[in-house]
Design brief:
5-stranded mixed beta sheet; single chain; 4 helices; mainly beta; 319 residues; Double Stranded RNA Binding Domain; Immunoglobulin-like
């Protein structure tokens, strides 16, 4: 009967007869301790649990300190354009600057190497901007450039002096000046822009390389009466001419409408005053001359031409 009464309700405690008030108090305390779980302190940032509030505070200070918003910058994409210029021509050095931080801030972009300059930019979080510097080289050499840890280089060379106008002999200090003259005074005509020997001397009977640039617009149609009916641009050593003027010069077949062309050809210090009579050009200093024409294969001179034996303004010494 006593055991059945103890199972009447989980919420009712059957006190045995004779337990007394002291026993009743101890029994009540034990029941409360079993019912109340211990207090747990949970980190609001990472969910870690701690037995005391002091432990929780120590954890937050160590692992989750309050960090104020800051600006942070990234510099990338260094561009140097163009990479090859003539002395006095501008070069643009640019880079991208991005604020990858959490606050607006200022940043100094510093150009170093052979040029010194700086710019200050102000960017909001997530904002980016392109920063550019314009440089002007004053001597022929390779220039080193750095921008906030990024590095690069460019090359400056001496500007080539253009040839005199092949039609009227006018002279110019720059390629742009010659081109402007041709467009205004000789529109639609082909012309040589420059012709430079890579060496100032060549052995008699030897050869050297010539670098050249020309403009070839739409050309006149050639007669088909001759076997060789193509236009030929040629540069050769003057005074000693061959029966075929371009035979020992730098020459190139050109096509109508090619526009600006550049190339390298070989000039030989030889000539043939008559068929099968090949001779070495004697020692001396000679002008380089040029022409643009069409020639009969038999060597009887040009059948058609634009210019003939025009002085390039350059000389070569045969030794």
């Amino acid at each position: 009967m006593a055991e059945e009464e103890k199972r009447i309700s989980p919420a009712i405690v059957i006190v045995p007869i004779g337990l007394g008030l002291a026993g009743l108090g101890a029994l009540a305390l034990a029941t409360m301790l079993r019912a109340a779980p211990p207090t747990v302190f949970i980190c609001p940032h990472c969910g870690a649990e701690f037995a005391t509030e002091e432990e929780l505070n120590d954890h937050i200070q160590a692992e989750h300190p309050e960090v104020p918003p800051v600006a942070e910058f990234r510099v990338s994409n260094l561009v140097i354009s163009p990479s090859e210029v003539y002395i006095g021509e501008p070069v643009i050095v640019s880079c991208s600057v991005e604020n990858i931080g959490t606050a607006t801030g200022d940043y100094t972009v510093t150009l170093g190497g052979d040029f010194i300059a700086e710019q200050v930019v102000s960017l909001a979080p997530g904002q980016s901007v392109t920063v550019s510097f314009e440089l002007t080289p004053q001597e022929a050499r390779t220039y080193q450039v750095s921008v906030n840890g990024l590095t690069g280089s460019f090359v400056a060379t001496e500007a080539l002096e253009p040839v005199p106008c092949v039609y009227c002999g006018a002279t110019f200090s720059s390629e742009a000046g010659l081109i402007s003259h041709m467009e205004s005074s000789h529109p639609g005509m082909p012309y040589l822009i420059y012709a430079y020997p890579e060496e100032s001397q060549v052995a008699s009977g030897g050869s050297c390389l010539i670098n050249y640039k020309a403009y070839i617009p739409t050309l006149r149609a050639l007669s088909t009466a001759y076997y060789n009916h193509s236009w030929i641009l040629w540069i050769t050593i003057g005074r000693y001419y061959s029966t075929v003027p371009f035979a020992y010069g730098a020459w190139r077949r050109v096509s109508s409408g090619q526009g600006f062309i550049e190339g390298t050809g070989t000039v030989r210090a030889k000539y043939n005053p008559a068929p099968y009579d090949v001779r070495n050009i004697p020692r001396g200093t000679y002008p380089l001359v040029s022409g643009l024409g069409s020639f009969h294969n038999s060597g009887h001179g040009p059948t058609d031409l634009y210019w003939w034996k025009a002085d390039t303004g350059q000389t070569i010494t045969v030794v």
